[in-house]
Amino acid sequence: MVNNINILTILLILCLFLSYSFWTSLAQQEVTSLQPISLTNSYVSKTQDDKQVDSDTTEKFEILTDETGNKLADKIVLNNTVYSVTLKNSLPPSNDPHDYMSLSRYFWPNPDKPNGLPYIRIDGIENPEIYTIPDYTLMRDLFKEIGNLGFAYFFTNNNSYVEKALYRINEWFIDEKTRMNPNLNYAGFRKGDIIGRRTGVLDIRPVFRMLQSIPLMRSSSKWNFVIEKKLRRWFSEYYTWLTTSPIGIKAKEDGFNNHGTHYDVQVTFILSFLGHDEQARTYSKQALINRINIGILPSGEQPFETRRMLSWHYSIFNLQALFLLAERADHYGYNDAWTYVGNDGQTLKKAVDYILYYALNDGKDWPFQNIGDFELNDFVKILELSYVTWADEKYLQALLILRPKAKLEQIEKNLDFEDNYLCVWSLMTNRLLWSCID
């Protein structure tokens, strides 16, 4: 981290977040989700070896987990939904039900063609037809569930969480009857084409939730290293596809916006999971430098995102990926991960500050077209991480204003009601535990 914050400040932050949670939970009645995103290997090994975590801190977060994570994990254990790509009714052009398939989000029937094919792009307008193929939703639910199960086991040592996680891993990646082939050849599919699109690579973006939960479960007597070995084989094959296939190469080379940034995050986390630490070290550093230089202006604007119809959403979405890249680069020893200055003076912090100005004004005078709302839910998570990272007082002051608004937004729009105590815990234990990026 860039700054060391004294323990009094940390406790004040914790009290601030706890107080907000108290009064907002009165309106919500029950917190439904608390999710870990990234846990560094050093933290996992230290904690699992000797459990040397401040006892008061552990007690606080065990209480919070009992109220949130464990309830969710218990529900996941009882969930008997089948998670498999073979369930879809529409087959991809390969006619192989094991090939993952999803429809491109912003593509609609062409009104100038009798059969509507090929579909045409209307940016920012989601076609509900995408939900007729369940692969996308099932895979996202899978990553979220395994992430939560790993987190819940970490705090409780409840082996039923590990057993359920292994069951899901085997069901989706390994079992010959239900497994997914290790490619995304038909992700982001546009009807009328014969192959998927590079943007479909984004579908597997939240895989880091699952990959980072696995080290949390290895200490369990129920952990199955044979299944883990097979999972590594699957990701090794997928990594080859991701980095050598025409779609994968195009996703990297043509993805100047958030697609490319999330591609880099995906590559880095997979390299880490496969044990290729030197490659991950080099890749995360170079990717972060590259994305800051090409994706952020000296003002902090992200031009490839602000040109979109949902310019507010995508500016924050790309920031999430940049933060994950910076965390990986920092983890692998790049000291300037959070302070790197681009060739024209661009910085990650400037990108946060650019959005913050408009967030404090409810999006007023945002100088770009934006057909969506100026939602705060995801940006508040970024802002909390920003304070954790740079210790800039203005972020704490902004949180006093924006966090209550975000909580009301969550309730009104029935969004996942996530709290971010783990960001504070990372300070108190001097570790990197990320819980603010969805």
Supply database-style keywords.
globular; two-stranded parallel ribbon; about 450 residues; Glycosyltransferase; mainly alpha; disordered N terminus; disordered C terminus
Descriptive overview:
- The protein is mostly helical.
- It has a domain at 82-254: Chondroitin AC/alginate lyase (Glycosyltransferase).
- Helix content is 56%, strand content 3%.
- It has helices spanning 7-28, 41-50, 55-67, 69-78, 135-156, 159-174, 207-217, 225-244, 246-253, 258-273, 277-295, 303-306, 311-331, 348-359, 377-390, 393-412, 421-428, and strands at 38-39, 101-103, 107-108, 120-121, 186-189, 433-434.
- Strands 1-6 form a two-stranded antiparallel sheet. The chain has a two-stranded parallel sheet with strand order 2-5.
- Helix 1 runs antiparallel to helix 17, helix 4 crosses helix 5 (135-156) and helix 13 (311-331) packs antiparallel against helix 14 (348-359).
- The two termini are 21 Å apart.
Write the layout of secondary structure elements.
Elements: H1 7-28, E1 38-39, H2 41-50, H3 55-67, H4 69-78, E2 101-103, E3 107-108, E4 120-121, H5 135-156, H6 159-174, E5 186-189, H7 207-217, H8 225-244, H9 246-253, H10 258-273, H11 277-295, H12 303-306, H13 311-331, H14 348-359, H15 377-390, H16 393-412, H17 421-428, E6 433-434
Parallel strand pairs: 2-5
Antiparallel strand pairs: 1-6, 3-4
Helix pairs in contact: 1-16, 1-17, 4-5, 5-6, 5-7, 6-8, 7-10, 8-9, 8-10, 10-11, 10-13, 11-13, 13-14, 14-15, 15-16
